[in-house]
Sequence to fold (206 residues):
Amino acid sequence: MTIAILGTGSVGSALGAAFATVGHTVIYGSRMPDRDEVQRFVARTGHGASATTHAAAVTDAEVVVLATPWEATEALVRSLDLAGKVVLDATNPLSWPDLGLVVETSAGEVVQEAAPEARVVKAFSTVGANIMADTAFAGDVRPAMFVAGDDADAKAIAIELTEALGFEGIDAGPIRRSRALEQMAVLWIHTAMHGGREMALGLLRR
Fold:
């Protein structure tokens, strides 16, 4: 499928390269798509990836990934036509250095409110870009990727995409569960800051 990645930072570039590697068509959306840094992302991604403006990137995309800084996300979402699109919200509304959440509900809910006709799913928000780029762990273990949204079909697509990258995709419930997932991101960041980034959350079963 065609996936628009909005944001060319560490998360956007990691997901773009990973999705391209498993066969999806990747279009990066950027305020300045001709910038040298963005063009380097495109070249590293390969597999026919391209870069254009945010609006143009979402036009033909079936899935849109929000990997933008939180402070720019809501205004960007309101400026785009996302009706009917599956929108994967990978943002976390954090303040630094205290790791506080700066919205009363969650980024996922704010995005859904800003794009009411989109099918928003919280995903790819609970680990760092390094894990998104390489999900391999020793043994028969997959890192967990919880997703939350109100549209069952959109969540199924999100889970399919997470599992294509090597995660175990897990349905965490409706979009309001983004509140829990964003707190999980705080936990991952805190742990990474004190014990290293090469780790992820998993789900044990017996």
Summary: The first strand starts at residue 2 and ends at 6. The CA atoms of residues 106 and 145 lie 17 Å apart.
